[in-house]
Amino acid sequence: MSQAVTSGAKVSLTGIKPTGEPHLGNLVGAIRPALTLTEAYDSVYFIADYHALTSLRDPKELRQYTRSVAATWLAAGLDPKRTTFYVQSDVPEIFELNWALSCMTAKGLMNRAHAYKAARDKNVEAGEDPDAGVNMGLYNYPILMAVDILIMESDVVPVGRDQLQHVEYAADIAGSFNHVYGKNYTFKVPEAIVPDESRGQTLPGLDGRKMSKSYDNTIPLFLPEKKLLKLVRRIPTDSTPVEEPKDPSTSAPFRILEQFASADHAHVVEDTRKRLEAGGMGWGELKNVLFEVLNTEIAPLRERYDALMEPGSELDTVLAEGAQKARDRAGRVLSQVREAIGLTGVAR
Ligand code: TRP
Q1: Where in the chain is the domain with CATH 3.40.50.620?
Q2: Using one digit for the tens of pLDDT, what is the confidence trace for 37-53?
Q3: Which of 57, 89, 215, 233 is 20 to 30 A distant from 141 in Cα terms?
Q4: Model confidence pTM above 0.90
Q5: Which residues of the chain form CATH 1.10.240.10?
Q6: Is 157 a pocket residue for ligand 1 (Cβ < 6 Å)?
Q7: 176 is in an annotated binding site
C-alpha cells in the first residue's frame, strides 16, 4: 500500500491495557478507529502491561492477555511496518522517565485523579480505611500514562471518555516540566481525541448496556463458531411478535449489526433494516443474520489470530522489532531530558 507515515506527520499514540480477552466492542470502538488514524498519523500503539500490573496478580494471565491483545491488533490489520507497535515493559526508558516526572508532579494532582478518588469513595462508603486495597501503582497510574504519551512526543491521543482526565494530566505534567526546564527541553503538549459517541461507536453488550469487560457482558472476538452463535442468541430483545413492524434503532442485535458490518455487508444492513420496519422479520431471524455477518467477517481474522498465538510465531519478531523502534524514539527524548534536568554532563 502507501508509504510509512514518518517525519513531518503528527504523532498519534494510544495504549491498550491487557486485562481481558479482546471483544467486539474493542474492535468497533477502539481498534478500527485507531487503524484509520494510521493513514494520516505517525502512529504509535502499545500494550500497557505495566498499567495492567496495578490489578492483575497472575503472571500467566498477564502474559496471555498481553499476547492476545497484540495478536488481535495485528489480525485486525495493524501494519507493524507503518506503525510503532510494542509492549510497554520492553522499553526501560519509560521507566526512567517515570521517576523523573514523578518528582515534578504534585501529589495533590494524584489525590484528585478520578480512578483513585472512586476507590477511596467506595472504601469510605463501606466504612473501610479510605486507602484500603489501593496500591501505589494505582495511585501513580496517571504519571506513568503521562510518560507513555510524552516520551513518544505525541500530538494526539485517541482514548475513550473515561481516559480524558489522564490525557489532561499528561498535558499538565508537560506544562510543569516546560515551565521549569523549558529553556533546555520542552515536551510536546498532547491533546485527546475522543470518539464521537453520537455517531454510535458504542456497541450494546449481552445485557443491552454498553459492551464492556467491567459489565461482564461482552462477546469475545475469537470464539469458536458454536459459542459465538450461542452468545448472539443471548442478546436481549423484546416480545414484539414476528409480523409486527419493529424499530431497528432500539434493537440491540440490529445496532451491533449496523456498527460492526463493513462496507461489504452494507447491503445486508439496509435490507435487514427495511424488513424489520416493514414487519414480518422476527428477532430470531435477525440474530441469524447477525451471526452470519459476524462469522463471515471474523473468520479470516480468527485464522490469523490463532496462527499468531502459537509459540514462536511471527508475533515474537514483530514485537522485538517494535521494541527496538520504540526504544530508539524514547531514547532520543530521554537523553535530552537527562541533560536538561542535570542527570548527565556532571563529570567531563
Ligand atoms: N489507561 C489506559 C486504559 O486504561 C491505557 C493506557 C496506558 C493509555 N497508557 C496510555 C492510553 C497512554 C492512552 C495513552 O485504557
Answers
A1: 11-106+139-201+313-341
A2: 999 999 999 999 999 99
A3: 215
A4: yes
A5: 222-306
A6: yes
A7: no
For residue 328, report the distance from its CA to the centre of ligand 1, in Å: 21
pLDDT (0 to 100) of residue 221: 96
Give the nearest ligand 1 atom to 141 CA: 1
Q: Residue 1: what pLDDT?
A: 46
pLDDT digits (tens, 9 = 90+) for 292-337: 999 999 999 999 999 999 999 999 999 999 999 999 999 999 999 9
| Residue 162 is labelled as binding a ligand | yes
Pick from 193, 138, 190, 116: nearest CA to 161? 193
The residue ranking higher by pLDDT, 202 or 144, is 144
Question: CB of 152 closer than 6 A to ligand 1?
Answer: no
**For residues 212 and 186, which has the higher predicted lDDT (pLDDT)?**
186
How is residue 197 written as a grid cell?
459517541
Q: Closest residue (by CA) to atom 4 of ligand 1?
A: 17
Distance from C-alpha of 113 to C-alpha of 286, rounded to nearest angstrom: 43
H or E element that contains 207: none
Q: 237, 213, 212: which is closest to 288 by C-alpha?
A: 237
- Asked whether 159 lines ligand 1 (CB < 6 A), one says yes
Distance CA 278, CA 248 (A): 11
Query: Any binding-site annotation on 286?
Result: no
Question: Is any ligand 1 atom within 6 A of the Cβ of residue 163?
Answer: yes
Q: Quick one: which H or E segment has residue 47?
A: strand 42-47
Q: Which residue has the higher pLDDT, 346 or 47?
A: 47
Residue 346 is predicted with a pLDDT of 74
- Assess whether the C-beta atom of 15 lies below 6 angstroms from ligand 1: yes
User: Where does the pLDDT of residue 201 fall: very low under 50, low under 70, confident under 90, or very high at 90 and above?
Assistant: low
> 312 CB contacts (<8 Å, ≥6 apart)?
none
Ligand 1 and 145: CB distance under 6 A: yes
Q: What CATH topology corresponds to 222-306?
A: Tyrosyl-Transfer RNA Synthetase (1.10.240)
Q: Which helix (H) or strand (E) holds 172?
A: helix 164-181
Residue 188 marked as a ligand binder: no
CATH of domain 11-106+139-201+313-341: 3.40.50.620
